[in-house]
Amino acid sequence: MDLGIAGKRALICASSKGLGLGCAEALAAAGVNLIMNARGAEALNASAEAIRVAHGVEVTAITTDITTAEGQSQVLAAAGDADILVTNAGGPPPGMWSDWDREDFIKALDANMLTPIALMKAMLPGMMDRGWGRVVNITSQSVRAPIGVLGLSNAARTGLTGYVAGTARQVAGKGVVINNLLPGIHATDRADALDGGVVKAQGITLDEARAKRAATIPAGRYGTRHEFGAACAFLCSQHAGFIVGQNLLLDGGATNLTM
Ligand code: NAP
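^ Those are the sequences you sent over. The predicted structure of the assembly is below.
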């Protein structure tokens, strides 16, 4: 399918690895020029170069922490009048409800709620003026069904979801659509880190931890960044203009819901 977005420009935050990289690769395959970002220069530059070579699109790589005001300014200056925004950042650490104090919540809210809101606030006006825009926020399945050990994530991402629900309906009339993608378990470094916690807590091997988690997913496996990126690219396409303020679960059926 021709996604109809060749030649457009996309800012994809936190995209040197994992789900952000999957989105960058899929948009580049559709002919979109990219502004990519991560904190670590080595992986970011390697991923940016691999995408240039594979897809022949322009890629600008900005090494900075997207959760800081300075990082956001740097990335926004490079993005200019980009047509597409994909928000993403690392997820908060796991723990118990009794572990976290105010500072932990502020950090999680900054990364997974206030950063995407700041980026949307900066970029939506230009998209609305030009009459076309796409925003995809990478959130989590924890928005639909809480994950006990990820209370910081449950809290911050649900806040973002509420903001998007209202804002998406305020900008849709100007040709700008905002939606959220909710990953379940995908085979990325983040999944390895969470599985590593289970290895320690339960005294099992990494393979055993993975097999245990895969068994909780009706699809019987972890998702891939390529599957995730393809869904993102569709939500950024010309065909997605009537999909407004939705929360799309990509979890292999793991969240047991009727709707
Ligand atoms: P990942 O494999 O660990 O990749 C994270 C990417 O984000 C890396 O490129 C990392 O590069 C970059 N990054 C992290 N913090 C950043 C920051 N402050 N500023 C700029 N770049 C940053 O993670 P992932 O699995 O793709 O997860 C992406 C998001 O989806 C996370 O919020 C995660 O919690 C959420 N999620 C993932 C899963 C899953 O199963 N994978 C499930 C549900 C939700 P640097 O470290 O070099 O900055």
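The pocket of NAP is lined by residues 14-20, 37-40, 43, 65-67, 88-91, 138, 140, 183, 185-186, 188-191 (CB under 6 Å). The mean pLDDT is 97.

Shout if you want it in another format.
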